[in-house]
Amino acid sequence: MTRLCGWVIRKARVGRVLILEVCGNNTKPYVLALREDRDRDLFHIAERLDVGSALCFEGDLAPLQRSKRGVEYSVSKIEVYAKPIEPLPVDISGKVPTLLDTRIKYRWLLARNPVEKALFKIRAGVLKAARKYLEDNGFIEVNTPKIVAAGAEGGATLFKLQYFEREAYLSQSPQLYKQMLISSFERVYEITPYFRAEKFNTTRHLNESWGIDVEQGFINSLEDVLETAEKLVVYIVDYVRLNYKEELEVLGVDLPKLSTPFKRLKFTEAVEILRSEGVEVSETEDLSDVAERKLGEVMAEKKHYLYFITGFPWSSTGFYYMREEDGVYTRKFDLDYMGLEIASGGQREHRYEKLVEAIREKGLNPENFEFYLEAFKYGLPPHGGFGMGVERLIMKMLNLENIREAILFVRDRTRLIP
Ligand code: ATP
Ligand code: MG
């Protein structure tokens, strides 16, 4: 005998049998089939229940599994915990497609439905897998402040807030803090929100998104960081493939197995490829959205679904990336997944003098970064890392069209509630 709980997502009568579909934390519903003649008392309880009711039941797996939609139980007891006070504003059964706008508004309620439930269980699985991989490879989880005095990239993209008598910002990245921690930890990671104040209007940007942020000390070259990034992604995808089969099936997603190494493409090579495809690209700027997508198509033809673009020009990067001797290119990389950037990272500048110079060259004031710069005075080893967008990764893994589908509560240009 087991006791299971959930919400009625569908109620149907077939002749003298009443069928309740109940969804809890499981992905596929529990199917309760009650016969008017045999289960008289339970039948009458169930008959009065509306879709949306919260209940627990006691029962056993039915010997005969007739339902294709879920797992059938023979029920011996039903306890009703809560009834809806009015009809639900959305169709929970998933029979009627819901507009994205409504889905975003009612995610917390729609997650009773197997499809939405599957999505967020996989999201939890992605985070679980990331933690597992990083923990198993010697990374220590840290938490750094989200209220900060200075940003990693400077002012315009930060949300301002009043911090007592001073001005502060919401952190757009743990970049500076995780680097500082490489003065006492060999390897760290943080699963963290990123707050970005740009007035985005795209299908791939949120104003509050989540990142898996990694920093690794004692590296010999950028290659050490690229290996961590690719192994992490492969581990996550494998973990989801193996442990979320039912959820992938519900979502109709066939997640292919990935293998390493991912293709490494120099930024200059990417520029050449794009120009030969007739796309206008600058040699000194970051790749545009159009260029990223086109490159994704070209790479997909060669079966490179995930690939690194390495060696971005200094003119396009943050001050903290290590520059090559030529001063023009850096050890910054992007990791793209079928035409979408899912991570950025690189080898950092760990030499104090060079770092101060880099801050000045980017037109920033080293005095504002004193707290950060101090960490570079006492033996900070060569290091590198990356920030990987959780929603972007999920979007690509599950073929979602809009990044808003990958997060429970959306923060974008127009949404501050729920
Ligand atoms: P983009 O150029 O695509 O706007 P970015 O280069 O500004 O992104 P990074 O600062 O490199 O972003 O952040 C690291 C990763 O975090 C990105 O590769 C992306 O996966 C994710 N990310 C950053 N900003 C956002 C955002 N506004 N919404 C969703 N994900 C984001
Ligand atoms: Mg980036």
Give structural notes.
It is a single chain. By secondary structure, this protein is α+β, with helices and mostly antiparallel strands. The chain folds into two domains: 2-88, Nucleic acid-binding proteins (OB fold (Dihydrolipoamide Acetyltransferase, E2P)); 114-406, BirA Bifunctional Protein, domain 2 (2-Layer Sandwich), CATH 3.30.930. Helix content is 29%, strand content 26%. It is built from twelve helices and 16 strands. It has helices at residues 40-47, 100-105, 107-110, 114-136, 175-180, 222-243, 245-251, 267-276, 289-301, 352-361, 370-374, 390-397, and strands at 2-14, 17-23, 30-35, 54-61, 71-82, 140-141, 147-148, 160-163, 166-170, 187-195, 208-217, 263-266, 306-310, 332-337, 340-347, 383-389. The strands form three sheets. It has an eight-stranded mixed beta sheet. Strands 1-2-3-5-4 form a five-stranded mixed β-barrel. A hairpin with a 2-residue loop joins strand 14 and strand 15. Helix 4 (114-136) packs across helix 6 and helix 4 crosses helix 7 (245-251). The longest helix is centred in the N-terminal third of the chain and has 23 residues, at 114-136. The chain binds adenosine-5'-triphosphate and magnesium ion (MG). Adenosine-5'-triphosphate is lined by residues 173, 194, 196, 205-206, 209, 211, 341-344, 387, 389, 391-392, 403.
